[in-house]
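Fold it.
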Amino acid sequence: MIDKNIVKTLVGEWLEGKDYFLVDVEISSDNRIVVEIDHADGVWIEDCVALSRYIEEHLDREKEDFELEVGSAGLGQPFKVVQQYVNFVGKDVEVLTADGKKVKGILKSVNAPKFVVTVQEKVKVEGKKRPELQDVDHEYDMDEVKYCKYLIAFK
């Protein structure tokens, strides 16, 4: 089986000096390598091809055969690395908490491993009969939520 650390090192070499960042590397038992990269402005297919070629040039198919797939992290997929959180500050996100509660709001800030989501909630205001909608900040730990992902809006 191909060593995941070798693939990560190759990806790191290719990424050096570029605005791309590594999201994930997965290698199955039958040597199917899946590399996910991302960029604040999106991923270009030409760059996926270039990274794929770079990896292929540095791995020996004679020694060990493999299947390689290089692509971007899916837009509606859960965040896997801190840089994805940072890229979506100010955008709508959905958080699934550890206890199974879904929260939708705006990703306000990121200070790894914590992040803050601003949610509109009805809050009882002193002196008023009815609760009012207000922005309430909720802080979460990246390792303690089931996921956080960008909410795609079709407006």
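Residues 45-58 form the longest helix (14 residues).
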